[in-house]
């Protein structure tokens, strides 16, 4: 793994978890917060933990923020501080600024001022959990766009011992099987003769309507 340098600004639940996770994976992480208590708490979960107000350009420059390729802005309630921090970071030339948005208005402003990635963690987690709860076969999914997704689906007994050719998934649903997983073995770009067993995990990509039809009829 390539070791990267990240800075996380705002050590609430979201920023704090990102900081801990990046640091435990082995990246260099500079953690920043306005609160002295937070900085003390995150000393052991980051490479450096620094107390400063990220809306102050001078302070950001002084801690060398320009040496970081990726900065995560996880300031929640103070939308003005989140927007101003993002603006300063883009002006200072940070290549990738990832920002947690509180609501749609915040999102729109962040888009306008050049935030590179905007995340809504509560909404995204809720959507994922709701999908998983509503289906016995859907394990996980990634939205590629408004229309296309990749999904992991658990094969049921209806598919047991049937080949991919027999299941004819692409012709019937317009869905492509990218890979399948049996126990710990992952088969990428499978052949049409490969047999699917109950419990196999299929990794499929396609239009959301096709994926939905596939999930509702083939499983
Ligand atoms: P979460 O839901 O992830 O816990 P939150 O919405 O509760 O987040 P806040 O508590 O509002 O988020 O903010 C997260 C952190 O950002 C806080 O620890 C706060 O001290 C810090 N913070 C707020 N403003 C600034 C600022 N100007 N500079 C640096 N840190 C800041």
UniProtKB/TrEMBL annotation:
Residues 136-219 form the RCK C-terminal domain. Residues 3-119 form the RCK N-terminal domain. GO terms for biological process: potassium ion transport. Pfam families: TrkA_C, TrkA_N. InterPro entries: NAD(P)-bd_dom_sf (IPR036291), RCK_C (IPR006037), RCK_C_sf (IPR036721), RCK_N (IPR003148), Trk_Ktr_HKT_K-transport (IPR050721). GO terms for molecular function: monoatomic cation transmembrane transporter activity. It comes from the Bacteria. PANTHER family: KTR SYSTEM POTASSIUM UPTAKE PROTEIN C, POTASSIUM CHANNEL PROTEIN 2-RELATED-RELATED. This is Ktr system potassium transporter A.
């Amino acid at each position: 793994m390539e070791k990267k340098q990240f800075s996380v600004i705002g050590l609430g639940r979201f920023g704090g978890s990102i900081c801990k996770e990046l640091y435990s994976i082995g990246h260099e992480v500079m953690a920043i917060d306005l609160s002295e208590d937070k900085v003390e708490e995150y000393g052991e979960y980051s490479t450096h933990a620094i107390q400063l107000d990220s809306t102050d350009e001078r302070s950001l420059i002084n801690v060398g923020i320009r040496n970081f390729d990726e900065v995560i802005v996880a300031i929640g309630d103070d939308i003005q501080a989140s927007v101003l921090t993002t603006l300063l970071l883009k002006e200072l030339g940070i290549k990738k600024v990832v920002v947690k948005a509180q609501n749609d208005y915040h999102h729109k402003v962040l888009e306008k001022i050049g935030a590179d990635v905007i995340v809504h963690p509560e909404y995204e987690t809720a959507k994922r959990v709701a999908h998983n709860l509503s289906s016995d076969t859907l394990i996980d999914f990634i939205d590629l766009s408004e229309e296309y997704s990749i999904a992991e689906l658990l094969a049921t007994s209806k598919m047991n011992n049937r080949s991919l050719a027999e299941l004819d998934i692409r012709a019937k649903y317009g869905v492509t099987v990218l890979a399948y997983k049996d126990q710990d073995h992952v088969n990428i770009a499978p052949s049409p003769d490969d047999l699917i067993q109950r419990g196999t995990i299929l990794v499929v990509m396609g239009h959301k309507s096709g994926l939905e039809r596939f999930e509702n009829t083939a499983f």
